[in-house]
Amino acid sequence: MGVDMHDFLPLVGVWSEPVKNEVEKGAIRKFAQAIGDDNPLYSNEEAAKKSRYGRLVAPPTFSRTFDYGRIPNLVLPTAGLIHGEQSYVFHRPILAGDVLYASQALVDVKERSGKLGRMIILLFSYKVENEAGDLVQTATSTIIYRPEGGNSHD
């Protein structure tokens, strides 16, 4: 019957290897433009230099553009996935020129049944650290997998 909860259980608690992400000014500007945020700290270098940060600041959710690496042996299906929830904890701002290391882990798996059938609920944890190993940002994300799919044309 395809993938089920027991396929994910051995991977709970397994972290990806941290991936180096270099924060570029242009990427910050493009991200801010894409989300429609015209805060000058995100796009105007002169304004950012006068701020307490001294350089461009990334919008809070900019870390979603980072490479978090791959969790060994985790293969998510390509169909039937629903993004359920996302939350962040900000420990320090992300600034242009930062070199950060991002990783992720599957931290919990649950199975539920509902009107639409079986659902496997996957909870992921993400962390971003600076070169000194200090936390910059942590996040969690809930992904819902419907093994029977969600196509209404079936």
TrEMBL record:
Stretch forming the signal peptide: none
Domain FAS1-like dehydratase: 11-138
Coiled coil: none
Gene3D superfamilies on file: Hotdog Thioesterase (3.10.129.10)
Protein name, per record: Acyl dehydratase
